[in-house]
Amino acid sequence: MLHGETLDVRMLIDRPIVEIFVNRGRAAFVSADANFSTSNTEVVLFNTGGGTVAAHNVSAFEMGCGWATELPKPSS
C-alpha cells in the first residue's frame, strides 16, 4: 500500500464460505470451512501492523435464500 492510500475491504460471508476482496480485487481470498457450526460464527477484523486503522462506512447485510419462500428465523 502506498502512503495515504485507503484500503477497501469487501467480505462476503455465507455460512461456511468466506470471500474477501481488497481494493476491488487487487487481492482476493476465498475459504470454505468443512466443519461449519452455527454456534461458532463471528467476524473479527484486526491489525497486526503498528499503524492506526480507522474504519469508515462499515455495513452488514443479511443475504437470505434465493429459493426459500420464507425468510430464515434465528435459532434461540
Question: Mind explaining what this structure looks like?
Answer:
This protein is mainly beta. The chain has one domain (1-34, 51-71). 0% of the residues lie in helices and 24% in strands. The chain has no helices and 3 strands. It has strands at 9-14, 17-22, 27-32. Strands 1-2-3 form a 3-stranded antiparallel beta sheet, with no helix packed on it. Strand 2 and strand 3 form a beta hairpin. The protein is elongated. It starts with 8 loop residues before the first strand and ends in a 44-residue tail after the last strand.
Q: What's the gist of this structure?
A:
By secondary structure, the protein is mostly beta strands.
List the domain count as a whole number. Answer: 1
**What is the succession of H and E elements?**
EEE
Q: Helical content, roughly?
A: under 10%
Unreliable parts: none
Give the percentage of residues in beta strands: 15-25%
| Total of DSSP H or I helical runs spanning 4+ residues | 0
Structural class: mainly beta
| pLDDT averaged residue by residue | 80
Q: How many beta-strand segments?
A: 3
Strand order in the largest sheet: 1-2-3
Which descriptor suits the 3D outline?
elongated
Radius of gyration: 16 Å
Largest sheet composition = 3 strands, antiparallel
Measured between the Cα atoms of the first and last residue, the distance is 43 Å
